[in-house]
């Protein structure tokens, strides 16, 4: 969807984050895994814009240099507290010990399983940072200890196809942008990156933010080899968004209904000329992915509702 009032979206998410991070009158630090991608970039910039204590952690693990460089450049240009914690050696040690313990060869482990290990190895880093981070409160000079892991998944990734590691980037305390589609994340990111640049006296967006906007979505877990989310999924995020919007506008509970009910509705849409054969194939594909990944869902993680909470507001069209 088109984001008509991005400032309102940023304001709502920022207020939601502040409320969730405030404990006993003190705001805890937002701990964000800053990958060099647009989703984590947006979450970090929202925290920056709202003055939320923030620490960004980049955790390369058999990753390419370019994703780390994008993350570092964004942090440098937008004044984000940033650290790099290399996890490659730790993951390799785990892998070698598991191979020895199970008496298996390197070739017996799939690339996807390795990518899962690499992603999951980052969770203890963020958890440790959240437990140990602290800052001095400017108002009363007290030391505020602790933080929360702030997730960076969007609606398409987290809510529909669940393109994340269950015990990796799925292990978060808060999900501020999980109600925004990827296209909406891009729009809000561009607005906010430009707004923050303007506040620093620049007329245009910083180069780091432009590089992130232009980059193809990638988990970057294949040892520097080219890997793109949409190639792995077999569909684009725009297609995921279209299916989600189409079926839930007609049947809000579509994804939760039985396979028989879904097929009956699809047949009805075909009879009425509402969908083409290609669109039917796409609906079935996305529906199958959603069902097969539902085990990753964690309803205990708070999600900032933007669309459903403000249906009567002209924020989207």
Question: What are the salient characteristics of this protein?
Answer:
Rossmann fold, 317 residues, 13 helices, two-stranded antiparallel ribbon, alpha/beta
Give the termini separation: 6 Å
Rg calculated over all Cα atoms: 21 Å
Structural class: alpha/beta
* Spatial order of strands in the largest sheet: 5-4-3-8
Number of domains: 1
CATH topology: Rossmann fold
CATH architecture: 3-Layer(aba) Sandwich
Order of helices and strands: HEEEHEHEHHHEEEHHHHHHH
**Count of discrete alpha- or pi-helical segments spanning 4 or more residues:** 13
Q: Would you identify the regions where 5 or more consecutive residues have pLDDT less than 50?
A: none
Instruction: Estimate the strand proportion.
Output: 5-15%
Q: Tell me the helix content.
A: 40-55%
Helices and strands, with pairings:
Blueprint: H1 6-21, E1 22-23, E2 26-27, E3 29-33, H2 38-49, E4 54-58, H3 65-78, E5 82-84, H4 88-102, H5 111-120, H6 123-132, E6 134-136, E7 143-145, E8 147-149, H7 155-161, H8 182-199, H9 207-214, H10 229-233, H11 237-250, H12 259-271, H13 277-292
Parallel strand pairs: 3-4, 3-8, 4-5
Antiparallel strand pairs: 1-2, 6-7
Domain NAD/GMP synthase: 13-241
EC number: 6.3.1.5
Pathway: Cofactor biosynthesis; NAD(+) biosynthesis
Notes on the structure:
The structure is a single chain. The chain is built from 13 helices and 8 strands. The chain is an alpha/beta fold and 317 residues long. The strands form 3 sheets. It has a 4-stranded parallel β-sheet, with helices on both faces. Helix 2 crosses helix 8 (182-199), helix 3 runs antiparallel to helix 9 and helix 7 crosses helix 11 (237-250). The longest helix is centred in the middle third of the chain and has 18 residues, at 182-199. The mean pLDDT is 93.
């Amino acid at each position: 969807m088109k984001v008509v009032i991005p400032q309102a979206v940023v304001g709502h998410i920022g207020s939601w984050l502040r409320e969730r991070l405030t404990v006993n009158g003190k705001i805890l630090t937002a701990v964000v895994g800053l990958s060099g991608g647009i989703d984590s970039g947006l979450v970090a910039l929202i925290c920056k814009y709202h003055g939320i204590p923030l620490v960004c952690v980049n955790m390369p693990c058999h990753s390419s240099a370019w994703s780390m460089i994008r993350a570092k450049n964004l942090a440098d240009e937008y004044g984000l507290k940033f650290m790099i914690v290399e996890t490659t050696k730790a993951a390799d040690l785990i892998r070698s010990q598991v191979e020895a313990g199970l008496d298996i060869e390197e070739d017996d482990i799939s690339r996807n399983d390795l990518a899962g290990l690499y992603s999951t190895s980052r969770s203890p880093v963020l958890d440790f940072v959240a437990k140990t981070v602290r800052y001095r409160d400017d108002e009363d000079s007290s030391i505020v200890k602790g933080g929360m892991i702030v997730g960076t998944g969007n609606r398409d990734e987290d809510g529909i196809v669940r393109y994340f590691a269950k015990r990796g980037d799925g292990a978060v305390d808060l999900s501020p942008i999980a109600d925004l589609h990827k296209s909406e994340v891009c729009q809000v990111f561009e607005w906010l990156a430009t707004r923050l640049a303007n506040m620093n006296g620049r007329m245009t967006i910083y180069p780091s933010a432009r590089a992130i906007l232009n980059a193809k979505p990638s988990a970057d877990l294949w040892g520097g080899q080219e890997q793109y989310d949409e190639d792995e999924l077999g569909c684009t995020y725009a297609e995921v968004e279209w299916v989600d919007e189409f079926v839930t506008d007609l049947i809000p509970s579509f994804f939760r209904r039985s396979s028989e009910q879904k097929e009956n509705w699809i047949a009805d849409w075909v009879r009425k000329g509402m969908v083409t054969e290609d669109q039917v194939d796409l609906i079935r594909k996305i529906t199958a992915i959603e069902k097969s990944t539902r085990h990753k869902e964690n309803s205990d993680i708070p999600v900032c509702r933007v669309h459903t909470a403000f249906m009567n507001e002209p924020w989207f069209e």
